[in-house]
Write a structure and sequence with these properties.
The protein is α/β, with parallel strands linked by helices. The protein contains 10 helices and 14 strands. The protein folds into 2 domains: about 150 residues, 3-Layer(aba) Sandwich (D-Maltodextrin-Binding Protein, domain 2); about 100 residues, Periplasmic binding protein-like II (D-Maltodextrin-Binding Protein, domain 2, 3-Layer(aba) Sandwich). Strand 3 and strand 4 form a beta hairpin.
């Protein structure tokens, strides 16, 4: 179940690192634990968005990074891979411009300047949308949201399998993060226990020094299913979405003077959602599910 808790603060902590080893697991196939309907539908199947004519486009250069697995990373051969890379190729195919598409990786700090300076045409790299960026760039509609979730120690006794079971209990969260603010705002009956960093928090959960944590769903899904957890823990309850604390989701950033390109991406994303291609790519790179 997805719990939508919608407000309005810019996306915090969008960029994080998941272990490269976990990212590379996607090449091995999709476990049965993840389903296509895990991904929320962000486009109305009945909506037909206008598609600007891109026939005059000489080339379309996507800019990304190599340090945001499983969204974008360099595989063992050095080839650009990941959810964003495959989605960019699918967008080009849907728009009928595969031969004009290029994908280039740059350091994250250089993406805005490269786009603004005309060294690329679109950025797909998990950039957090905020008021400043909206004043300088244009954006597509969100194609994915990154929720928060609870994880629990399997040996801890809870009277239920949702957040209600945690009322009155101590739950770990990284101090000073959007997840801490969200936990305090939406779960006032839970006692937050602050940690300086995620690794220490998860180690204490693994050692049962604390019985549950609240954090980013992507990180928790890979950690609970991976070797680092030692099988100690599992996700608890459903996913929680909040525009106020977690932002509007992942979008494609283009130059402000190129709104037609953003509209073309919206149309193509809607088509990929309708025909199942977006969900297919999601299943490949998020085998343990986010929702």
């Amino acid at each position: 179940m997805i719990h939508a808790l919608v407000s309005s603060l810019h996306f915090q902590g969008a960029r994080f690192l998941v272990a490269i080893a976990c990212a590379l697991l996607v090449a091995l196939g999709t476990p049965q634990s993840s389903r296509a309907d895990d991904l929320p539908v962000l486009f109305d199947a009945r909506e037909r968005l206008p598609r600007p004519d891109l026939s005059g486009l000489l080339r379309l250069r996507f800019l990304t990074t190599t340090d945001f697995p499983p969204f974008n990373f360099a595989d063992q051969t050095g080839r650009l891979s990941g959810f964003h890379v495959e989605l960019a190729r699918a967008l080009c195919a849907e728009l009928g411009i595969e031969a004009k598409c290029q994908i280039q990786a740059l350091p994250f700090a250089e993406l805005e300047g490269a786009l603004d300076g005309g060294q690329g045409d679109a950025v797909m790299a998990g950039i957090a949308v905020n008021d400043d960026l909206r004043g300088r760039f244009a954006f597509s509609r969100p194609y994915m949201q990154l929720p928060a979730r609870f994880a629990r120690h399997k040996q801890a006794a809870f009277a239920g399998e949702d957040a209600n079971a945690l009322f009155g209990r101590r739950v770990g969260v990284v101090s000073g993060t959007a997840h801490e603010a969200m936990l305090r705002a939406f779960f006032p009956n839970i006692e937050p226990v602050g940690f300086a960093d995620r690794d220490r928090m998860l180690e204490d959960l693994k050692g049962k020094k604390i019985e549950a944590v609240f954090a980013d769903s992507l990180q928790l899904s890979f950690w609970t299913a991976g070797e680092a957890s030692g099988g100690c823990c599992a996700l608890l309850g459903g996913a929680y979405l909040s525009e106020r604390f977690l932002g509007e989701g992942l979008t494609i950033m283009v130059r402000r003077d190129d709104p037609a390109l953003a509209s073309a991406f919206d149309s193509a994303l809607a088509a990929l959602s309708r025909n199942g291609r977006l969900q297919e790519i999601y299943l490949r790179y998020f085998p343990y599910g986010l929702f």
